[in-house]
# Entry
Amino acid sequence: MVKIGVLALQGAVHEHAKRLESEGTSKAVLVKRTEQLWDLDGLILPGGESTTMRRLIDRYDFMDPLRQFAASGKPVFGTCAGLILMANAIEGEEKGYLAFMDVTVERNAFGRQKESFETELYAKGIANDLIAVFIRAPLITKVGTDVEVIAYHQEEIVAAKQGQFLACSFHPELTDDHRFHHYFVDMVKNAKKNVV
# Structure
């Protein structure tokens, strides 16, 4: 059984926890205090409002602990706003925030809330017909040489992986399709096995 945290400051926290628990091989932990991070095998940065999440990360002194967690080699998965937090560059802003991944993102690239939609995607190594929900979703506009593109929507990048980091523009926690979470749980299990 692996322990995977969901950063519980704001956003779709309980939906991710429910998906993780449904795996049967992972225990979900709602992370509200920095000291909870050190007992985890992996971490999810959920969708929500990225500016609000950034403020709360600063207010509750999560910045350095999150960077230390990432530096330890443990897997981190960011969805929607979580992707924005993980990107090393955000279009129209001076710099990224946590900067875990060598990607550039554009906020709200698919339009406002009323332009939300659901579609099927081919996700490399995960599924040929993954159900993806896009809500005020960001877009990955550039990737570094070490970044593997996992999924496209109409030739635009919507999911990527770099080492132990996984991120997507959409909300896999809002569907009954568990395969993206299953993929991340496998990443966590493999990382745990490889720890000496």
Observations:
- The chain is about 25% helix and 35% strand.
